[in-house]
Amino acid sequence: MATKMYRATVASVRAIYGNRLRPQQYRMMMSMHTVPEIAAFLKQTDAYRQLLADMEPSVVHRGYLESVLRRAVFQQYLHFCRLEQLRNTPFFRFVIMDYEIRELLKAIQLLPQHNNSYITQMFSWLSPYTCFSLEELAKADSYEKILEAVKHTIYYTHLKPFLSDAEGNFSYFSCEIALRAGYMQHLMDETKRVMKAKNRDALLDLIREQIDLINLINAYRLKSVFRTDQATLRSLMLPIRGNLPTRICSALYDAPDAESFRRILMNTRYGRMLGSPGELPHHLQMEHCFQTLRCRTARNALRFSDHASVSLYAVHYLQQVEVDNLTTIIEGIRYDKPASYVESLLIMNV
Known about the structure:
350 residues
């Protein structure tokens, strides 16, 4: 893989990204009143016409539409991997890993309600591709049984330390950090192993930027909303080095309050990307701006890289954001929220 660019895949990814939903289309959907209206509209768009061709809008409900959208994006990834036999290259399994982690976190989060709740929300269509049995995961009604379901996988190593006592108690947030950190570390290790020169550096830079921005988003939220103490905040950060120097990360994490955090941020590359010191977003907009910045870095990587690995990593994130936007609009309809409020939650200009 190190010597191949997979240009057909790059061209296909860019073409699909070119069909993404635009702000005007989001606003049209925000004026609708039912989920079937949303489904019918999406079937007419360039982005989803083929992916949702077999869906009957009149019988669609909220949970089913989200599952269909996630599955459609996943099938698109499989299409990319078939173009130049990328599915035979282990590196390109990173998208499946992301879905596996989502399923594990879903199952863990729903444990207090017993796993019947997970059974109704699991993406069963993912089953042929996972490295563990979704059926066994669905049967698991305790953290120990979830561990048993993934015992032969790398996820067991990440999750086992958090079975904290004989009663089977565990920390969901610790599990999430461990799985996400393991995923990012795996991506970087595989990138260093199979890629060379500028393509390796481009993908590593993108991954590290995403690590930085995930940590900045979480740290700012913990400081501004939850007033979290320094020790707890540090325990909830991804324990992987991004592009920010360690001393800057320490200063940000140890800042006594959100305003101090903002002042330190002004002098970082991400602060400069958000705006000049006198123009940094209001604190209520900061997290949204961080999310937009994540999309912008992924979009730039997609536009300027000529390697399939960078293109697929970037478009995978951007497509997940698009589905998250659609889910937010659907939830807005469900709870009868004003369109202006729903729009404030969307990441549209990507």
